[in-house]
Amino acid sequence: MRHKILKMSLAVVLMGSTIMAGAVEVYTWRDKKGVNEYSDAPVQLTPAKTQRFNVRTQVATPLAAPQPSAQAGSDTLTEQQAQLNRKIEEQNKKTDEQNKKIEAQNKKNRESACKTAQMNRKMADSLRTNNRDALIQRYDEDVRLNCN
């Protein structure tokens, strides 16, 4: 008796909270003992085993047949999620490879900028202009930024 009261109160709370939260779907099914169960997710994440329950009208309707996915044999959400995870892992690997290439190119660019800054600094030592000290200071800063 307590178990039934607990389940009924849980169902009422679930229905009430979904109305307030603006939830669209509540799923219902019968367990092995024949007791109605309510949830915001299909039973065992397989929509074929559940019904959609409209909280406002108190009507349970069967879910539409699952649409065939791009790959045959994927009838459960868990399998679809596993396929999606594999695709994401492949994309992450490609992105990591691209990032490594970019890092290598950036390293080459920094080495080139360092060599240029060092040559400019050496050239500034032999200058005979009024702004020689300003140029030396500027090239020292360039060497500090590009060579460390």
Automatic annotation (TrEMBL):
Bias (Basic and acidic residues) occurs at: 86-113
Q: Start and end of every DUF4124 domain?
A: 20-70
- What are the Polar residues biased-composition ranges? 68-84
Q: Keywords assigned by UniProt?
A: Signal
Region annotated Disordered sits at 62-129
- What Pfam families would the database entry show? DUF4124 (PF13511)
Signal peptide, first to last residue = 1-23
| Classification via InterPro entries | DUF4124
Q: What is this protein called?
A: DUF4124 domain-containing protein
